[in-house]
Design brief:
The chain contains 15 helices and 13 strands. It has helices at residues 10-15, 23-26, 37-45, 49-66, 96-105, 118-123, 140-145, 147-157, 185-201, 232-248, 258-264, 271-274, 294-308, 336-351, 430-443; strands at residues 82-85, 110-112, 130-135, 166-172, 209-211, 213-214, 219-221, 229-230, 252-255, 282-283, 290-291, 316-321, 366-368. The strands form three sheets. The chain has a nine-stranded parallel sheet. A two-stranded antiparallel sheet has the order 7-8. It has a two-stranded antiparallel ribbon with strand order 10-11. The chain is globular and about 55 Å long.
């Protein structure tokens, strides 16, 4: 049928009456008419200037529909491949409103926190940043025992803030399985189910992702990557959890730290392998896959454990990864130079949107630990020194970000000029560019 505002001869209309859904564009493409080419030419000459413009517009939109952009069209729980953990166990870090300013200036769109602090939720209103909030370990038993508790929590910490605050995910506990408090293992899956039931009551189950991060302690072995399996005592609780996550479509989140692996065994681990620097790498004897960095090997080890347990299609994402810029004398490798090297190379690797040797077509997504150095964190000295930024908002070292204040940190320029908000590298479709060019040329 002709585009409104055009006049096409009956012969031309008959000549182009293809059963294909793109018939509206056929007469405009050489050789596409089923009748004599002269009919299409006569039809074109009969169009007014206004009519020709409408036809060109029709062609333009047909081409756009035929070759759509690969950019995200809907809200995603994780945009691009790069995110940040915004921990706040400190008494000297910037206020949440200044943190939002810092994140937006740094074009970091994916943010994960460890609670549901209302000052943070308020500061993120209208920011456009994706925020994952958390139900801490201390609430897991309560949420498991009482479904109404999850309803109350959602009603207090989620419902009032949507949609202005883009809450896209909720974590239930952190490193529960394989952790020190074994009493949390059994109630974890019921707590997750109760939170999901609450999301359903608010019709949010398709808008908010639900997951729980795991440490490397859930694995019995991780070398070589293909040999990785879950510990037997962990699998008792892991299986029902994975069954449920598979049912609702949640990824498996792991906290992957090459830094910690290196500090445990610096005599046998090549630090270049841990830092993404040139090195011989390793070859997995079971798969013949080559790994030139430990980060990829840790992710593929998680994939191997999932496959061995029967969860072949579940995606692995990284909930935490980072490198300490300082630490105790016993913590080998904790230095500003190593932290800068790891985080620079990791950022570059994530922006390339590539997969791992085992899953080359599935881009890796990771939350970096952490946004700030946190001076009140307990534990080893390194725990206070994972931040990309110092407490005053200055960069801890230069990997391409600018802080809230000028810094004297050594320069380490990031050469990724195509990096855009949220860690996306923008690629313009040649077809779309060609379509625009043709349209502009023909209507002028």
């Amino acid at each position: 049928m002709p585009w409104p505002g055009t006049q096409v001869s009956g012969k031309a209309e008959l000549a182009c009456s293809s059963e294909a859904t793109t018939a509206c564009c056929d007469c405009l493409l050489p050789g596409s008419c089923s009748g004599p080419p002269v009919d299409c030419g006569r039809a074109m000459t009969m169009m007014s200037r206004s009519g020709r413009a409408h036809w060109m517009l029709a062609l333009f939109f047909c081409l756009l529909l035929a070759f759509p952009s690969h950019g995200a069209q809907a809200v995603e729980a994780f945009v691009g491949g790069y995110g940040i953990n915004y921990g706040r166990i400190a008494n000297n870090i910037p206020s949440p409103d200044k943190v939002v300013k810092l994140l937006r200036a740094s074009k970091i769109r994916n943010v994960k926190i460890y609670d549901s602090d209302h000052s943070v939720l308020d500061a993120f209103r209208g920011s456009g940043l994706n925020l994952v909030i958390a139900i801490p370990n201390g609430l897991v038993k309560d949420f498991a025992a009482n479904e109404s508790r999850s309803i109350d929590w959602l009603n207090e910490n989620v419902q009032p803030y949507l949609p202005q605050t883009r809450i896209v995910g909720i974590t239930v506990g952190n490193e529960v399985l394989g952790g020190q408090d074994t009493s949390l293992a059994e109630p974890l899956v019921q707590a997750v189910k109760n939170v999901y039931n609450g999301l359903q009551k608010f019709h949010l189950e398709d808008k908010i992702e639900l997951f729980t991060p795991h440490s490397e302690a859930v694995f019995a072995t991780s070398y070589p990557p293909s040999a990785c399996v879950f510990k037997e005592d962990v699998m008792v609780y892991m299986k029902p959890l994975l069954d449920f996550f598979q049912h609702i479509g949640s990824p498996f989140y792991v906290n992957a730290y090459p830094f910690l692996a290196y500090t445990y065994d610096p005599q046998h681990i090549d630090i270049n392998y841990a830092l993404f620097k040139p090195n011989p790498g390793i070859v997995d004897p079971n798969t013949s896959l080559h790994y030139d960095n430990m980060f990829d090997a840790q992710i593929d080890a998680a994939y191997a454990a999932l496959q061995a347990a029967g969860y072949i299609d579940m995606e692995v994402r990284v909930a935490e990864t980072g490198w300490a810029s300082s630490g105790d004398q016993t913590e080998a490798g904790a230095s500003v130079e190593n932290a800068r090297t790891y985080n620079f190379n990791l950022r570059k690797r994530l922006f390339l949107r590539k997969g791992t040797p085992l899953k080359p077509k599935r881009p890796v997504k990771a939350y970096i630990f952490a946004l700030f150095n946190e001076n009140s964190k307990p534990g080893a000295g390194s725990e206070k020194h994972y931040g990309l930024f110092n407490a005053d908002g200055r960069i801890a070292y230069d990997i391409g970000y600018e802080g809230l204040l000028p810094s004297s940190a050594p320069s380490y320029f990031l050469s990724l000029r195509k990096i855009q908000a949220g860690g996306r590298i923008v690629h313009y479709s040649p077809t779309v560019i060609l379509s625009v060019s043709i349209f502009l040329a023909l209507v002028t």
